[in-house]
Amino acid sequence: MTLTDYAVDDVITLVRRPVLPEADKEYREIGIRSFGNGIFHKEPVPGHEIASKKVFRVEPNDLVFSNVFAWEGAVAIASEAEKEMIGSHRFMTYRVNGQVADARYLLPYFYGGPGLEVIRHASPGSAGRNRTLGIKTFGAKRVTLPDLAEQSRVADKLVAAMSGLDRVNSLMSHAELLHPQILASLVPGGIKEVNLSTVLIRVKRPVGLKDDTSYRFLGVRWYAKGPFVREVKQGREVAADTAYRVEDGDFIYNRLFGWKGSFGCITPELDGAHVSNEFPTFRVEASLASLEYVMLLFRVPALWESALARSSGSTPGSRNRLKEQELLAMKIPLPSLEEQAEIVRRANAIIAASRRAQWLSETSAALRRSLLNAAFAGQL
């Protein structure tokens, strides 16, 4: 495959179409997702709200770069859906020189191919908004492209393959959004509700810390994704004199982030680890409820919202604690143990399907990277 060297300015041309907003007219701005994930539309706004902004019209087939996030692949092609929309001065609109380049080839070339490094070299700074694409520097950079026919052939294959992967990702995203609702629907209505204090029994296993002993300290992930080993410390490295041992089958939560769904249960591999006093632990009253059923309830965002309403402190992001008495005052539906077992069985099937969907999503991302690598190595 023969490659030709071009200056970026010979391949794409910056075109600016200034718009002077009219006070009584409605406008809609675009945004661009990173990593080649396309354009999104912001909510319509009246002209008087953006009167002080510099905005520019976007046209179909523009190759659009976010000058603050181009370095992480915030590049897109405008479609008919963006006709008459606008972008702020942060969105650079280019027209492609059709005699030397195919826009469909340039798009992945810049968001995930050799062109991404060209963008990064033209975007000085450390990270985030400090890495702004230098337009003059970018225009003077060199790119190497195959002939137009080869670009179109590769683009045809990439578009077909990426469309299939995009459909998979769209289905996976939709399923992920529905997941909490499906879990919540498993518990039928009309079941008596009880305070959590009915089924949770507070347990404390204080341990005096020894200077030369190592201790595994746990955290609890948000969104009911369970406990994990946060750090391993020698006793002398811990400010407190006492920690609390946890055991397999404990129910645990983080006082500071109950409102973020920071609930979980201790699994066998975490048995014997330790937590600070910010992580209250409980046993489930086995004659009334199963740990699996209680954990299922805490996977549903409605309980996190209840936790937020019962938390107290300065702000949700800092010291907003869910105290034990507030947790135990929360109400849950309590069917019979047999009904709980059936609900858990059905929930496990849904959770397993969700994990398979996550695997598909991760596989899709890996395939996407492999396709881009093959496309620009002449192997597609």
From TrEMBL:
Alphabetically, the GO molecular function entries are: DNA binding
Arranged from A to Z, the UniProt key words for this protein are:
DNA-binding, Restriction system
The biological processes this protein is annotated with in GO are: DNA restriction-modification system
UniProt-listed InterPro entries: Restrct_endonuc_typeI_TRD_sf, Type-I_RS_S_subunit
What name appears for this protein in its UniProt entry?
Type I restriction modification DNA specificity domain-containing protein
Q: Which organism is it from?
A: Streptomyces lunaelactis
